């Protein structure tokens, strides 16, 4: 079925609570956003694999025999349960001409592609000649899980191309999703992509990209949150670039340096996530405005904690101050160090008040957008069902 080509997508995410702490076994609550990464896969005839990633300026192609030769060097070691080894990544870097230790977006994206392509073909059979194009509505490296959305799309496309998962889109349907079992496989390979990009990911981002909706995540255990109130959220990108890999490594260093000081902060973040989950459950049964002050206070406390563990940034402090001047509460989301913040809007926050806050945030050089949460996870699309903007990006890039 994929032989006619396919288009699929995965959502970005916002972490309500638990970023960083989740890497150390604590609870995180995360929701899928209505901003997505799209991948188009087309067969091509020349015995080559071609990858176009316009978001990070990559246009590369390799002939299949050279990929097969590379793979045969360490085929036995590829498995979705094993982290990519230093040796494997060094070999792939050398093959692709990527400098050791390079953390540029294009280097990490190319390395993740090569790793997943070789590992999946080693396990499930050769990849066919193909042309892959990835285009995203998400900002890259801003805390909204663009790396996970990219990894989920690659996993779904490569597993489809090797025949390890089906192509569930039937003639005449506009979208389709895979079975639970297939989604579990896609998620585990997406986690490998995240491992290449992040070093030590928790797995929460790829879980949201795969399953969508809203979920609680702890140490690999994914619990969908069935009853979540329709929260209104304002996302603000400070446009300050940062790397998840570097920030995650910084928190680890702080824990090693001051364990007795930092570990209780992570425990407190865990308690915030749990408290927030209880409040959301009560709210969905009884959607009364009385719960909002609690959610707002939890945002404030967690933002302080995230500053304590070293992932704040002056731009994020400014974001919180500006929204506070409009009576709104914000925290960073994702890895921090710049990137995005989320601001909770109450059901009765007027459009005028939101516009005034947005105006002040934009005056700081930030970008804002109001989003809805709980979007579907990884999805196959028929071309005719795509928005004009997406179709244009996938045909013109
Ligand atoms: N559209 C995309 N195309 C290719 N690579 C991408 C894309 N989006 C993200 N990436 C990869 O993910 C990395 C950003 O991941 P990360 O630092 O975790 O930030 P975040 O996940 O918050 O956006 C980029 O450096 C790049 O390697
Ligand atoms: C900081 C962390 O909790 C979330 C990172 O999210 P993002 O890559 O900044 O979108 C890391 C992780 O969970 O793997
Ligand atoms: Mg990421």
From TrEMBL:
Listed InterPro entries: GHMP_kinase_C_dom, GHMP_kinase_C_sf, GHMP_kinase_N_dom, GHMP_knse_ATP-bd_CS, Mev_gal_kin, Ribosomal_Su5_D2-typ_SF, Ribsml_uS5_D2-typ_fold_subgr
Keyword NAD: no
Every GHMP kinase C-terminal domain range: 297-357
Reaction(s) catalysed (UniProt annotation): (R)-mevalonate + ATP = (R)-5-phosphomevalonate + ADP + H(+)
Main location: cytoplasm
Pathway(s): Isoprenoid biosynthesis; isopentenyl diphosphate biosynthesis via mevalonate pathway; isopentenyl diphosphate from (R)-mevalonate: step 1/3
Keywords tagged on the record: ATP-binding, Cholesterol biosynthesis, Cholesterol metabolism, Cytoplasm, Kinase, Lipid biosynthesis, Lipid metabolism, Magnesium, Metal-binding, Nucleotide-binding, Peroxisome, Steroid biosynthesis, Steroid metabolism, Sterol biosynthesis, Sterol metabolism, Transferase
Function: Catalyzes the phosphorylation of mevalonate to mevalonate 5-phosphate, a key step in isoprenoid and cholesterol biosynthesis.
Name of the protein in its database record: Mevalonate kinase
Lineage: Eukaryota, Metazoa, Chordata, Craniata, Vertebrata
Gene of this entry: MVK
């Amino acid at each position: 079925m994929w032989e006619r080509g396919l288009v699929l997508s995965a959502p970005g995410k916002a972490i309500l609570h638990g970023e960083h702490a989740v890497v150390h076994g604590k609870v995180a609550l995360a929701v899928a956003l209505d901003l997505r990464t799209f991948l188009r896969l087309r067969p091509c005839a020349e015995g080559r694999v071609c990858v176009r990633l316009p978001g990070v300026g990559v246009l590369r192609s390799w002939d299949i025999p050279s990929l097969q030769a590379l793979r045969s060097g360490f085929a036995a070691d590829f498995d979705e349960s094993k982290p990519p080894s230093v040796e494997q990544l060094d070999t792939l870097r050398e093959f692709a001409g990527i400098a050791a230790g390079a953390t540029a977006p294009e280097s990490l994206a190319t390395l993740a592609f090569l790793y997943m392509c070789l590992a999946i073909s080693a396990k499930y059979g050769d990849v066919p000649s193909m042309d892959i194009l990835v285009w995203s509505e998400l900002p890259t490296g801003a805390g909204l899980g663009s790396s996970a959305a990219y990894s989920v799309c690659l996993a779904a496309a490569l597993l489809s191309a090797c025949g390890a998962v089906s192509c569930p889109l039937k003639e005449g349907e506009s979208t389709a999703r895979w079975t639970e079992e297939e989604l579990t496989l896609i998620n585990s390979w997406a986690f490998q992509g995240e491992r290449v990009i992040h070093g030590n990911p928790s797995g929460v981002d790829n879980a949201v990209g795969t399953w969508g909706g809203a979920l609680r995540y702890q140490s690999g255990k994914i619990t969908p949150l069935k009853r979540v109130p329709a929260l209104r959220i304002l996302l603000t990108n400070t446009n300050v670039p940062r790397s998840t890999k570097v920030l995650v490594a910084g928190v680890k260093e702080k824990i090693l340096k001051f364990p007795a000081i930092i570990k209780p902060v992570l425990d407190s973040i865990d308690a915030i996530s749990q408290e927030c989950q209880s409040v959301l459950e009560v709210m969905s049964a009884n959607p009364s405005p009385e719960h909002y002050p609690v959610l707002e206070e939890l945002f404030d406390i967690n933002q302080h904690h995230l500053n304590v563990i070293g992932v704040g940034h002056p731009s994020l402090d400014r974001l919180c101050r500006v929204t506070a001047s409009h009576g709104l509460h914000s925290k960073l989301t994702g890895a921090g160090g710049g990137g995005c913040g989320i601001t909770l809007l109450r059901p009765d926050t007027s459009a005028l008040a939101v516009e005034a806050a947005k105006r002040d945030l934009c005056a700081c050089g930030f970008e804002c957008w109001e989003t809805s949460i709980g979007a579907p996870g990884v999805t196959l699309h028929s071309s005719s069902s795509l928005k004009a903007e997406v179709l244009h990006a996938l045909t013109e890039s």
